[in-house]
Structures are given as structure tokens and as C-alpha cells.
Amino acid sequence: MCDLTQIHASCAARGEQGILLVGPSGVGKSDLLLRLVQAGFDLVADDRVCLNGSWASAPPVLAGLMEVRGIGIVRMAWRERVRVAAVARLVSPPGYPPRLPPLPGRDRMTGQLEFFLDPALPSAVARVELILDCVAGNRALLDDGQM
Question: Which residue intervals define the domain HPr kinase/phosphorylase C-terminal in the entry (predicted)?
Fold first, then answer.
């Protein structure tokens, strides 16, 4: 059972940073999560995420389970919880903005920085890594006036 809020989302962790993947059904949350896990991220939750403040975890009944379309539900190694560092709002064309805003906004539910991401892009995993690098201060996120 979730401590506070349960949402339709997925979550992965890189070190101490969690990335919350949110978006409508069928946009590619689980597919991107699978690619992140293959790239060395830890599975936290697939399909449903429990939020307790800025902490994310899987509902106990779904812990360690990932749905892979065309294959089925697979049991995988998973992390119990992680602090959410950023939110990736998954959108696909035509919902993908032609030009992203110079700086990300804040997600209403978590208060964390929110980025828009097309999960079908071949660079989606690299973009998630870049998002987490920016949030951690390892890379500078510049606005238009600084380019």
C-alpha cells in the first residue's frame, strides 16, 4: 500500500537520483524504462508509482515487475525507493513542443524540475542522463540569453 499518493507513471534511479516518467497510456513509459535499465539505471517502479513527499517507490504488489509489450510481465532486480530529482513528461509528436522553453518548469505534484521528452527518440536515454546531470549541477542548463 502506498503511504500517500499513487500515480500512473514509471520511475528509474541512477545513483541517488530518481527520474519520474509521466505521460498518457501508450506514450512509451515502460519502453523508456526498459532502455534506462539496460543502460545501467535501477528499476524503481513500472506503471504505478507511490509518492511520499519527494520519495518514489513501487506499490508492494508490483515491486520488481516490469511489463514489456509483446513479451509479458517480467520480474527484475529493483530498488525499494529513491528521491525524485526530476520529472520527464513524455510526449510524442504532435504534442512535442517544436521549441522547448529555455528553462524547465516545476512539476505540480513533486515540485521537482519538469522536462519534456519524446521517448521514441534514439537519444531519449542520453537525454535522461543529461537531465539528471543538469539537476545535479554537473552540467549547466543555460537560458537563451546565455548562449
Answer: 5-75
The predicted-structure confidence for 26-61, as pLDDT tens digits, reads as follows 899 999 999 999 999 999 999 999 999 899 999 999
Let me know: does 59 contact 85? Beta carbons within 8 Å: no
Indicate the burial class of 123 (C-beta count within 10 angstroms; 0-12, 13-18, 19 or more): exposed
Average pLDDT, integer, range 107-129: 88
Residue 144 lies in a domain: no
User: Which of 84, 146, 142 lies closest to 109, judged by CA?
Assistant: 84
Q: Which of 58, 128, 33 is nearest to 86 (CA)?
A: 128
For residue 146, being part of any structural domain is answered with no
CB atoms closer than 10 angstroms to residue 28? 23
Number of domains in the chain: 1
CATH number of residue 55's parent domain: 3.40.50.300
Residue 145 lies in a domain: no
Parallel, antiparallel, or unpaired for β 113-117 and 72-75? unpaired
